[in-house]
Sequence to fold (459 residues):
Amino acid sequence: MDDAIFDRLKAIVGEAHVLTKKEDLIPYGFDGTAAIKEPALCVVLPGSTQEVAAIVKLAHERSIPIVTRGSGTGLSGGSVPVKEGLVLCLLRMKQILELDTANLTLLAEAGVITKDIDEAALPHGLFYPPDPGSQKVSTIGGNVANNSGGLRGLKYGVTRDYVMGLEVVLASGEIAWLGSKCVKDVAGYSLKDLFVGSEGTLGIVTKVLLRLLPRPKARQTLLATYNSMEAAARTVSKIIENQIIPCTLEFLDRKTCECVEDFAKVGLPRGVAAVVLMETDGHPDVVMEEATRMADIAKENGALAVSLAEDAAHATRLATARRSAFAALARIRPTTILEDVTVPRSKLPDIVRFIEDIAKKYDLQIATFGHFGDGNVHPTFLTNERDTDEMERVHAAMEEIFEKTIALEGTITGEHGVGLAKKPYLPQQFRDASYDLLKLVKASLDPKGLLNPGKIFDR
Fold:
């Protein structure tokens, strides 16, 4: 890019919001993904949809690649810069524009922090269910781009289930509104769903219309301990088999549990092979009934002990501790690689056993935790990216885990997205015309290939 382009960008957003100095660009050269980075050439921080549109039109005119970015918490390399491109950071666009209690909706700009949305709904007796582990720092635009999940995904679903409408800047710089406040709306193709989970490769989401729910009246949290990971996985499968859909069914193996306790100090047990965190919410009578039944199922399937949270504050501390698993594990080795394979819930014992065997086969430290209620497992590699031999074993182990996941009718990513990290493995999952269909959609909406190029697949 030449000085003339920088001058035009400054004219659009103001000089203070165009970053070109090397020291200012450093934080934008990577996201939450280990061992993936690329220096940013230029970062632009627009303050409105109109500014985003003007930047995209300029990029389209001069064939400049664009990588859209929020807080940079992604775990697939999706917001890592590309050479000779600019980074479009939407953190200045952080206004909650409307909270409509009559229609139970909230309209937010893409840069609003996820947790702030739920906190805005709280005084009205409402809540926003999706709760990714990074909810205190991640943006709603990033959540939409990756179709983020979270601890409550089992009962309440993922980001896609709450998006009613989107404002999107297309590759040409045109602005489109997709969706509405209507509970029923089948006019034309469901284009908004095409953009949810598209990782910034089809358009730039600038505003999001979200569905809110009434806040549950009661909640109960349970903690079950096990002497084997398979028994814990079996418990989760049996709870679902008994047609109980709790709010949360989370799993931590021994290493994760002990690291989290060292980090958060909330009283998690030590010396056990696995811990399952269970939470039910809703009407008080239903909550009590489900909590009692889940405790019984846990004991029937080998739980060493089942305990109830002492009070709401204790329950919150337990959930917060679970959210800190990644941060806690990251303290152990120089490099932490967090994966998110997902299998049908009935196959959980199979994938857990396989991950254990793979860790032994390749002599690696792999901690495992995840959203067991929806089959989403996070095998977490504790390694050192400077150790070439160990990293070769990590990649070999990772490839075997992906192959096993697909063989179990699973998916290589449940919530983190494909980005750069999963791109080599996507063709294994999309083995028929569906892979070419992905490329056809991309080519139709972004014919110049300027939006987050090289992510998900190569052109």
User: Anything to note?
Assistant: Residues 327-417 form a domain with the Alpha-Beta Plaits fold (CATH 3.30.70.2740).
